[in-house]
Design a protein that fits this description.
Helix content: 25-40%
Radius of gyration: 17 Å
Number of strands: 15
Low-confidence stretches: 152-156
CATH class: Alpha Beta
CATH topology: Rossmann fold
CATH architecture: 3-Layer(aba) Sandwich
Number of domains: 1
Order of helices and strands: EHEHEEEEEEHEEHEHEEEHHEH
Number of helices: 8
Mean pLDDT: 87
Strand order of the largest sheet: 2-1-3-9-12-15
Structural class: alpha/beta
Largest sheet: 6 strands, mixed
Distance between the termini: 18 Å
Length: 274
């Protein structure tokens, strides 16, 4: 079992919410695709890239399910999922934790139903968890999320000209009231609760922060993805994940970004390169 598979998603435009458009997410998907080819040993046929109108919930989940099926059948030993888009929140849909909210990811066909997001057109972290926990223990799963799920840590500097947050609030006042003040569980915690340890999760910021969609060097990018790709290319994948994390954090501080990227994985994975 030596195969690799990756899904790179970048969404700038949202069919039903044109005013929520971002500008750097498609560039993120392109940059991650190049990185996987140049440094991670992926071939073009190993990578599926979905951007804007192709990045519907149906298409994203279909490709993720195909990756997981390939891992279960022994076809893939390393699978990667990258997602650059808006994030949001929904009440805990499982009903077993009324004091918590679920993180959710916005596809191109994001839609509202009544006061809340339409579950057929939003990707909730529970859906990803239920899919990813099927992956065999000897398969490496690496997830990169350049999005955010809370506006509570928003600061004035995050709204400077040339920057935009990758967070979209719940679609109505009633929906906002249902999530306001509740704790986020997060994808990584839910995976750990299910006993899944052979995974690596990169998040662009802490749960209470926003991630930046920013104009950097004359073009738009996710600030985290831009500096992650920069440091990976400079080091030629010879640094450990933990060393890359520290360099990316330093770059973001130097650029006056408030977000602090997170790396969630076992200690052994932290001290290995990609």
């Amino acid at each position: 079992m030596t195969g690799k598979r990756a899904l790179c998603v970048g969404i700038n435009n949202f069919k039903n919410f044109p005013s929520a458009a971002l500008r750097g997410c498609v560039n993120d998907a392109n940059d991650m695709e190049k990185l996987l080819k140049n440094l991670f040993g992926f071939q073009a046929v190993d990578i599926v890239k979905l951007t804007d109108t192709k990045a519907t919930k149906t298409n994203i989940m279909k490709n993720l399910k195909e990756m997981v099926h390939g891992a279960k059948s022994g076809k893939y030993s390393h699978i990667i999922f990258t997602m650059s888009s808006h994030g949001t929140q929904v009440p805990d849909l499982s009903g077993d934790e009324p004091d918590r909210v679920d993180e959710a990811f916005c596809p191109n066909d994001l839609a509202q139903k009544g006061d809340d997001w339409d579950s057929n057109h939003i990707i909730v972290d529970d859906e990803l968890r239920d899919l990813f926990i099927q992956i065999p223990e000897d398969v490496v799963l690496e997830v990169y999320l350049d999005t955010c799920h809370s506006g509570t840590g928003l600061k004035a500097i995050d709204l400077l000209f040339g920057r935009q947050t990758r967070y979209i609030p719940p679609p109505s006042l009633e929906a906002f009231k249902r999530v306001d003040g509740k704790r986020q569980r997060g994808l990584n915690k839910s995976l750990l609760e299910k006993g899944m340890v052979q995974h690596i999760l990169w998040a662009a910021c802490r749960a209470d922060q926003t991630s930046a969609d920013a104009n950097i060097d004359g073009d738009w990018h996710g600030a985290f993805t831009y500096y992650f790709c920069k440091e990976m290319n400079v080091s030629q994948n010879k640094l450990t994940r933990n060393e890359i994390l520290e360099k990316v954090r330093k770059d973001l501080r130097a650029g006056n970004y408030t977000q602090i990227p997170q790396l969630e994985c076992e200690a052994t994975a932290r001290n290995k390169n990609g």
